[in-house]
Write a structure and sequence with these properties.
Length: about 270
């Protein structure tokens, strides 16, 4: 087992270490910022959440007792600071799957966001993000943007928000079929709708869906991206929760030959502090 863990790629160390530090121990741009927000009336405090899943097993292949090893690791962490007027969030996520001696999945991101005038119906946001998804061919993505956020419904713990803004996205993709790299720099419009819905004292649904569009001038085409995240959080106690998460992404014209539609369903445990 230790030998297998030592083969984890060194290039993940930064994102994994960030998620570890955020947790104080130890989930395309599809990011459910809503489940990381806080809505207390008080201010000047830190808050955060963290979760980790580790799967490791072997299975028989062929004859003569030969086995293949499987390792899967998923870690998420976020920390926030709430001041009198603003909210500051820093989030990190890492996902790794290794099978038959080869990396099958390796993704991660670090995301920072500031919400100004957090208690007003109309607030302002600024954000930045670094991300990679090696097995899809996304070597690196960096983006930064700003926009407005409008609270449509705020009744008790129920929240319905709309957001719109602009961002600039830099990407470096690897076309694995042709073994070449493609660089893209595209300004985009970014829009989202989010809902936080308590179903009962122990169960909460949160969802956010993005629509992003930009014009790729060198290619002479518009690129549309639709992505969403749906989370169901089951409260065990004041510190621990069970989280089931479904994410999906559709891109009308992927930059490299990959499926237009991708999805993921995960479940795990998170701790709040």
């Amino acid at each position: 087992m230790s030998a297998l863990l030592m083969r984890l790629p060194f290039r993940l160390s930064f994102l994994f270490a960030t998620a570890f530090l955020l947790s104080f121990s130890v989930s395309g741009q599809i990011l459910n910022v809503e489940k990381s927000r806080v809505d207390r009336d008080s201010s000047h405090y830190f808050t955060g959440k963290a979760g980790v899943n580790l799967n490791l097993f072997n299975r028989a292949v062929g004859v003569e007792g030969r086995t293949d090893h499987y390792i899967g690791l998923t870690g998420t962490g976020n920390i926030g600071y709430v001041s009198e007027h603003n909210t500051y969030l820093l989030l990190a996520s890492y996902n790794y799957v290794r099978l038959k001696g080869e990396t099958q999945v390796e993704t991660g991101y670090v995301h920072g966001r500031v919400t100004f005038r957090r208690q007003e119906r109309l607030s302002y946001e600024a954000f930045t993000q670094a991300q990679y998804d090696y097995n899809r061919g996304l070597e690196f993505r960096a983006l930064a943007g700003a926009g407005i956020r409008f609270t449509v419904v705020q009744k008790g713990d129920l929240r319905f928000n709309l957001g719109t803004g602009v961002m600039y996205e830099h990407e470096r993709w690897r076309n694995m079929e042709e073994d070449r790299y493609i660089r893209k720099d595209i300004p985009k419009l970014s829009n989202y709708a989010s809902i936080r819905l308590p179903l009962n004292p122990y169960l909460e649904l949160s969802t956010i869906h993005y629509y992003q569009v930009g014009y790729d001038q060198p290619a002479g085409m518009a690129r549309h991206r639709f992505s969403g995240d749906i989370s169901i959080v089951t409260k065990i106690n004041n510190r621990f929760q069970l989280v089931t998460n479904f994410t999906h992404t559709y891109e009308n014209r992927p930059i490299v030959p990959i499926p237009n539609y991708l999805y993921s369903l995960t479940t795990g445990v998170q701790v709040s502090f």
